Structure formats: C-alpha cells, structure tokens
Hints:
By secondary structure, the protein is α/β, with parallel strands linked by helices. It has helices at about 15-30, 75-80, 85-110, 120-135, 145-150, 155-170, 175-185, 210-220, 245-255, 270-280, 295-305, 320-325, 340-345, 365-375, 375-395, 395-410; strands at about 1-5, 35-40, 50, 55-60, 115-120, 140, 170-175, 195, 230-235, 260-265, 285-290, 310, 330-335, 355-360.
Amino acid sequence: MRIAMFVYEFPPKIVGGLGTYAAEISQQFIRMGHDVTVFTMNNGTSLTREIWRGVEIHRPMLVEISDILPALVAEDLRKWGRGIKFFSNIFVYNILTASKLVNDLVKKDQLKFDIISAHDWLSVIAGASVKRELNIPLVFHVHSTEKGRAMNSGSRVVNDIEFYGGQISDKVVTVSFAMRDELTSLGFSEQKIRVCYNGVDPSKYDPSKVKPEDAKTLRKKYGLRESDNMVFFVGRLVSVKGVDRLVMAMPEVLRKFPNTKLVIVGLGEMQQHLTSLVDSLGLQNSVILRFEFLPEEERILHYAACNAAVFPSLYEPFGIVCTEAMSMGKPVVVGARGTSGLREQIVPSGPEQCGFHVNPNDPSDIAWGIISLLGDPSGARRFGENARNRVLKYFSLEAVAKSTLTAYEELLGK
C-alpha cells in the first residue's frame, strides 16, 4: 500500500521517542514492500524534498505568523507566551504539508495514496484536512495525550485537537493497553482503537555487537572501576519522567552499595533543578549529569556498559528507551503507576521476569528496585536475558510493523 505519514519529528529532527519510532517504522514498511511518503517539519536548514533510506520526505519551509496568530485564536493560546511561536509553526506545518499532498502530489502529479497516518495532535490537522479533501482513510496514531503529559492539566486547545482527531479518524492506533484505557476515559470510541506496541531493531540493539573494551572505556570515562555499579537513565529531563525522584533515591542506594554511580543523560527543563538537587544531597561524586542528546550508537554503548537501566516515569504511554535497554540484555526498573506502557514491557516476577515495577512517586521504592538488582548479580543477568528474549518475541520492529499494517488492512478491507 502507499502510506502518507504526517509526523512532527523525523531525522534529522529528533526530539524524543516519536522521531525514533517514525524513522524506524517507515523504513520497516519499505522493507516489507510498501511505499511511504513522510510529511514533516523543516528546521529551516533541511532539504524540502529528499529520499532518505528509501523513504520519500517532504519538508515545506515555514512562514512566520506568530505575531498575528494570538489575534485569531482562543484565549488559551494567548497564554502560551513565547510558546505561541511553537504553536504557530505547528499550525503552518499542518497547512503546508496537507496542501503539498493534495495539490502537488495528488492533483498535479496524479499520485494515489491508500491511507493517511497522522501522529499525535502535532500532525492530525493535516491528516484530517487530507481525509476531507481526498476521502482517504485516516489513522490517528496517539503516542500520548496533553492531559497525561501535563499531569491532568495542559492546554484546552491541544486537548480539543486530540479529541477532534479521535472523532474524525477512521481508526485510532495507540501504543499500549494502558493508553487505550486512558483514551476511552477521555471519550474516544473503544471500537476504533487498536493497540500496536512500539519496537526496536534487535539486530542493531544487540549486546553481542558491542566490543567489551569499548564498554570498559566508557565506564572509565565516567570514573567507574571494574567493581563499580553503573545505573543508567536516558531521556527527556521533564517532570513526568521522574528523574528527580531517581536522584532522591540514590542516598539509600549508596548506603547499601557505595560503589554505585548514576549516569543521567538528556535535555529538558529540569536541568537546573537536577543540578541543584545533586548539590543539595551531596551526590556530586555519585551522580553524573550529562546534558546533551545522545546519538544512537553512543546510547547503545551506554546500555552495554551499565548494570541496570532505570526509568521511573510518572506517565509513560510506552517508553522506547526501556525497549532499547531490554534489547541490549539489561534488567530494568520502571515506574508502574497510572498510564504506564512500561508496566506491559517489564515482567516483574515469575520465570520470565526481566526487572521490577516500582512506585515512581516514592524514592524509597525506586531505591528498593535498584538495590534488588544490584544485590543479585546472577539474577540480574538472567533478567537481562529474559528482557532480550521478550523483545525478540513482542517488540521487534518486524512484529510492530506487522501489527500496524494489520490495523491498516482492516480499515481498507483487505
């Protein structure tokens, strides 16, 4: 089938898990014999049209409307302050990409598309416009919600756009059963929703492909001796990720295992807060803060070097970094309260156990999960083996693509 994918982030623009997912799943669709055309944001320097690893990409250049937009929109948006420029860019991106597909590719070039996939509120306006103009089925991929990201608050306008997407789309695909339950609680039609997990490429995230000496070199870079424990967190440094609670858990971990270092890598609004928190707790020698975006190859090396990965999110519809760590054969401690796709990835007990579930609001419970792994090295190794086997069974890119294509084919009646 020929798929038109509207997604806000796509290489070289990667902000979080959505961009990684879009890049990987589009390539997997190509490998499985389908055509994919991606419509994404232009950062001002990217090519407006190119073929990237078999995927055709369109990135129309934006025009500036943030000065006039507040006069045209709801009071809710006027309160965004400097954020109004972000919203105006999103709005223009949606209009320009929808016009590009309808007027240039379909009406002018006579191309035919079978299905539209629009990802999150950031792209669903374009998807809905194309559906109305061309009568092509629309799949609305919901990776998270405004209410969840903002911990039960957020923008009413964004909430309304998400709900509109759920109403106008022909099918809603979401990333976990926890997210399905959240969407139905927000008024989405349960009959429309299909759960299709995100995934990783286990041939890329493969511990056997990392040279042991490279992992040792990385550990030395962080000042770790061979006998030291490395606990790893990577992700956006925002409140819903629970990274501040992870820092607060470290004094308890260090009382039991003083030879432990926590390595935190990422970017986000909590950078200054985390620096102050580390200083106030006297953890300068035990918590390493690295404020930067970690490229994929280096991220893989960090997974290989660590003893355990910890993702104590308060809200996490799926959590692709957890899947990456699992694929690298690492045991994982995850937040398992509220909307948590992490809870569906990590088996916390029994013969297939691959980590622990904790209360992400409680630093002592996070510490318990870390201590439980560090105190049982042989068990942790077994959990890591189980984690990789679980990825191979449920979370490989191939399995994810097949599940998603099945949802598309249901809609097309094939």
